[in-house]
Amino acid sequence: xxxxxxxxxxxxxxxxxxxxxxxxxxxxxxxxxxxxxxxxxxxxxxxxxxxxxxxxxxxxxxxxxxxxxxxxxxxxxxxxxxxxxxxxxxxxxxxxxxxxxxxxxxxxxxxxxxxxxxxxxxxxxxxxxxxxxxxxxxxxxxxxxxxxxxxxxxxxxxxxxxxxxxxxxxxxxxxxxxxxxxxxxxxxxxxxxxxxxxxxxxxxxxxxxxxxxxxxxxxxxxxxxxxxxxxxxxxxxxxxxxxxxxxxxxxxxxxxxxxxxxxxxxxxxxxxxxxxxxxxxxxxxxxxxxxxxx
Length: 294
Fold this sequence. Notes:
Elements: E1 33-35, H1 43-57, E2 61-64, E3 67-68, E4 71-72, H2 77-86, E5 90-95, H3 102-107, H4 111-126, E6 131-134, H5 143-162, E7 166-170, E8 178-179, E9 182-183, H6 184-191, E10 198-202, H7 203-208, H8 213-219, E11 226-229, H9 243-253, E12 257-260, H10 270-283, H11 285-293
Parallel strand pairs: 1-2, 1-12, 2-5, 5-6, 6-7, 7-10, 10-11, 11-12
Antiparallel strand pairs: 3-4, 8-9
Helix pairs in contact: 4-5, 5-6, 8-9
């Protein structure tokens, strides 16, 4: 399997797993996406130049985090896609949501929220998105509330599927805490429909949540189409995240694409942090080994 897969991640699992999944024919070695949130402090003023620089660094696609009022970073969906492609990359995915609030939890009715998704999905399709990812739901007070969220994710995922887009959920660390004696992340995995909801594991936040990415790959094989490759600062900087173990087990996870995100930086120049992160991945021996074994 030549899915580049997987640059990524995390730490606590040391056991290799053989691959049974067939490779994605569309996936090429060294396909690396970048979450544009990594450059949030400067992308507004340097938008065109940043896209070009990211392409020159070696990124092949982008994950957006700037959808608002029908636009991406102030650009119409078609224009955003054109901008990314002109820079030599493709549009891969987007972080966006319309979170449930007190009214929905009180009534159990999220139909008004679903109406919002009709235009959002259409805009993402026009922008060329393959994946839409909900990046946050917040800690939940009870399993009743969490189940309502599962129902909501399933409903949004069904709308996305009908439009030819894959829909997923991205974790932070709080999902590994318990709600009414059940681990929130496990409950989400077990009460969402794999046909409509995949998971974008953020391996750094998984480790911070005191969980093992590889253990979750084994427990819920095939559910993790995307991975967020992240570290405390630049990728590989902390030594906390065992990226090699993740690479050895990415096939059983079902990984199709990986996305680099840098949330914190060692330097005033955020572009330097992003560049160091992709350079680390391109040179990592465990990445090269993953090519050889495929």
